[in-house]
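Appendix B, example 12.
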Amino acid sequence: MKLSGRVTVTYSIDAALQRLIDQQFPAAQAAGCFSPLAGLTGLTGVVTVNQQRILARREAPQPIPFVSRRREYQLLKRLAASGLVPQVYGRNQHWLLLEWLPGEVLDETQFAARLDELAALIGRLHHQPLSGFRLALLPLLETYWQQCRQRTAHWLRALRRLQRQGEPRPLRIAPLHMDIHAGNLLACETRLRLIDWEYAGDGDIALELAAITAANPLTAAQCERLVTQYAVDNQIDTDALRVQMQRWQPWLQLLMASWYQLRAEQSGDQPFYQAAADAWRAV
């Protein structure tokens, strides 16, 4: 999920990606190699076409709940007029081609220093028309449970507790990014830009704020600053927003643990198993 923007190794372009490039850039000379970007999913890389860098996002070979390049393509097209998302060039069954956004990925210190800008950016996103793709956490959590092999009584108890409670009634439904962290924020000239929209969808604005504070190493004072600034900018009662964010915390804890568990089983990578173990202790 975290894209650092750093190119690692290169691979030859496969036939499906070459067909999409030929279709979208018919006058192009032969494209170069596919250079993957560092990230947890490992499905995104850079291709150079006529000296232009293009972002290529591969369809996941193993299913990840809610992640679909078709849905991502449609969502980005619907948000195109907002100026918040990269330009979409095209898509086929296996690949999605997007504009490469120039800029520097933030580190954690820069992220914490630009919280007021981040609050304004999130507010702009949350005032866009709905994308039409509703993010419902309960069916998502149930899908993770069904797809994983290594399931525990602790996990089942947590899932059943949330099933009994039902999802919190939203403060307001809006388009959400749902993966905002330093690695998905670019400093582009005078403004911040968001990248990596594969988990985006329509949901409660408080869920977005809760996800940001849960996924980033912010101090209590920094979290308070972000939430307060967002509430002031968007004329929302700060206390009501805090309470709603707290309601979403157990949902996010289970979602994070479930995500790491599935990715660990799919990849067999030890770092994912360790991350899953850490996440389960928080559930």
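The CA atoms of residues 123 and 233 lie 7 Å apart. Residues 238-267 form the longest helix (30 residues).
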